[in-house]
Specification:
Structural class: alpha+beta
Helix content: 10-25%
Strand content: 15-25%
Strand order of the largest sheet: 2-3-5
Shape: elongated
Radius of gyration: 34 Å
Largest sheet: 3 strands, antiparallel
Distance between the termini: 71 Å
Number of strands: 9
Length: 192
């Protein structure tokens, strides 16, 4: 696949006097009208060059996602550019303010070289884990396993326990202590 470089940073016919620029009235008709209006002699090479440049720029944007920063363009607030693997967002309307050295005008919103792995103390990229048995503090639970937990959780009140319930601790309840049942349910131990 061909990798495209950024084409010329100029707007086609931007230096032409207004009398030489008019809207293309037959947009849906296409270039056929250009042949009719010029008795069949439009400048084919110029038209090919124009459309080739437009197509190259589209391909350039498709491949890069964001255009490289240019010192000759004026950027509105919120515009996005990239310099190497760092992507920036314009904080101010600016021209010829290099993003890497103009922190008042640009904010980093993605640095491909410095994306850290996430942890309990650091924001970053995290790998998904589709199990309920992991004890990792750097992997994230998938939505499927979150749903499995929700579907199989035991309600705090009510509900039915089937099978054998083994209690392996002394049950003490403030409610039972307040009612005068001594030290609580010490007697309820073992298999219920």
């Amino acid at each position: 696949m061909t990798l495209y470089t950024r084409p010329k940073n100029e707007v086609f016919a931007s230096d032409s006097p207004p009398s030489e620029i008019k809207p293309f009235d037959a947009w849906t008709y296409g270039l056929g009208i250009a042949f009719i209006e010029t008795s069949g002699f439009p400048e084919l090479e110029s038209m090919n060059g124009l459309f080739n440049a437009l197509n190259q720029y589209i391909k350039y944007l498709e491949q890069n996602g964001f255009a490289e920063w240019s010192g000759t363009l004026e950027y509105p607030v919120g515009a996005g550019v990239r310099v190497g693997s760092v992507w920036y967002r314009a904080r101010t309307r600016n021209t010829n303010k290099p993003p890497a050295t103009s922190q008042n005008d640009w904010a980093v919103f993605l640095n491909g070289a410095d994306i850290a792995s996430a942890s309990t103390s650091v924001k970053g990229i995290v790998q998904l884990n589709n199990t309920l048995s992991s004890t990792s503090t750097t992997l994230a639970l998938t939505a499927a396993q979150g749903k499995a937990l929700q579907d199989n959780k035991f309600d705090k009140t009510g509900g039915i326990v089937s099978g054998t319930l083994t209690v392996d601790a002394t049950l003490r309840s403030k409610q039972y202590l307040d009612l005068g049942y001594g030290e609580g349910l010490d007697a309820v131990r073992g298999v219920i």
